[in-house]
Amino acid sequence: MNSRRIGGVLVLILAVVGAGCGSGSTGSPAPPAAATYDEYATAACAAWDALFKAVGNPDTGGGSVMSKGLDEAVAAGDVATADRLAIDITRVLQTGREQIGIAGGWAPRRPVMVQLDRVFAAFEAMVAAKRAAARHEPNAIEPQAAFEQAGGVAAWTAMFEAARAAGGGAATDRPCPNVPVTP
């Protein structure tokens, strides 16, 4: 076998192995996608719970205990507390994004969940900006600007537009048990 052919075989083997592994694969199966409204609502409400726990009510601007603690740590220059809270808040947001992924499996509300995921990602950018501010990092971006540049405002508006387009108010729609949201 010549070296060119061996190289081609190795490339093929690596491609097959890489495709089998997938990017970012942890070996864990993907969570099940919502197939019914009830499954969608359960996952969507869990996502909203996470958002309210992590950052508070975006409609009212009322912060959560976690986000207020982060703001206080940033203002006090308490880098260790700011780091810990930023990590905790981001972890809660990421758990919420996992629930959004499940809820997005229900086709009638998938467009809404796509936009809600963008909102969560923008809040993650805001938290990262707050953490950078606590560390006095050079060129740290202002947190609200980070949220806006990450598309948070546009996604928030698009989420409501997608919800209107999807319809709602059906007899099956029910409010979330823990937060003032009807998914």
Describe the structure concisely:
By secondary structure, the protein is mainly alpha-helical.
In words, what does this structure look like?
- With 183 residues, the protein is mostly helical.
- It has one domain (34-166).
- It contains seven helices and no strands.
- It has helices at 3-21, 37-54, 65-76, 79-103, 110-134, 143-149, 152-166.
- Helix 5 runs antiparallel to helix 6.
- It is elongated and about 50 Å long.
Strand % is: under 5%
Give the C-alpha Rg.
21 Å
Low-confidence stretches: 1-25
The residue-averaged pLDDT reads 86
Helix/strand structural class: mainly alpha
How far apart lie the N and C ends? Answer: 61 Å
Count of helical stretches: 7
How much helix, percentage-wise, in residues?
Answer: 55-70%
Q: Can you summarize the main beta sheet? A: none
Report the strand count.
Answer: 0
Number of domains: 1
Give, in order, the helices and strands: HHHHHHH
Choose one word for the global shape: elongated
What layout of secondary structure does this protein have?
Blueprint: H1 3-21, H2 37-54, H3 65-76, H4 79-103, H5 110-134, H6 143-149, H7 152-166
Helix pairs in contact: 2-4, 3-4, 3-5, 4-5, 5-6, 5-7
Features:
single chain, 183 residues, mainly alpha, 7 helices
